[in-house]
Specification:
about 300 residues; 9-stranded mixed β-sheet; 8 helices
Length: about 300
Amino acid sequence: MPEAAAPWLSYQHPAVRDLVWLLASAPLMASGESAYWPSASDYLALHARHEPWLRALDAEPQPLLTWLSQTRDHRLGRYAEDLLGFWLASPSNIEFALVAEHVALRTHGITLGEFDFLVRERISGQLWHIELALKFYLGTPDQQWLGPNRQDSLARKLKHLIQQQLPLLQTPAGQTWLHSQGLETPRPWAWIKGRLFSPYNSEADTSTPQWFTPNQLRSFAQARGHDWHTLAKAHWLAPGSSTPSQHAPFNVETDLPSIATQALIAFQGQQEVLRAFVVGNDWCDAPISSLCNTAADER
């Protein structure tokens, strides 16, 4: 990928690189009609407007590290929210001022939901309700996108985002809260990032995120000289920000039988060359058994 389309590659500190990836990477999917849904070029332009501040942060990342150290929730989604929250809350943010974050709306003792961020555009005064989603899905031949554990899907996430999360501040409870704060109804912004892993295709570019069955991975690995490692969730965001020593080695011959679904990273020397998933045989159970049939034919 050209550096112009992947500006995070030129940042040095891993946490700053993750923040830049969160700002500049393309959305997980094309735009929806129910909210502001920026395009890939929109996010690259957003990074460009904030690049001087981000470069300065890369040179002196301690404020970000201090901010991140304050959380006790180390889930990947919370890490992404903390990164975005740091950027939005910075007094040096030239574009946005943070108004509120992580406010739970309740009625009659029942929690209806919690919005992520409420920000005001400094120049126009536009109020934005940002919902951040960070997702990683594996594709199937019948055009489904499923989570690594198959308990989540892109279709389900989009339905929840569009029908419940983005309209939250337009509900009676949301309007009551906004009125109590002296705020107008904001415009919703779907900020959905992540990575899609396609089924293994022997003709695909070798850097394309893919997922493999055990036999496919053995065949793929034997034809290449990559060093394979498990990819911990702490490193799932920006590529190119870690070294082999930060990951546990993964042997494609001996480690495969014991795994269910595992995120992997491949290196050529010290350079990251591929991110992938390998799935256990149970991942191919119904209702997508045709996926296993296809995989068996490609061994």
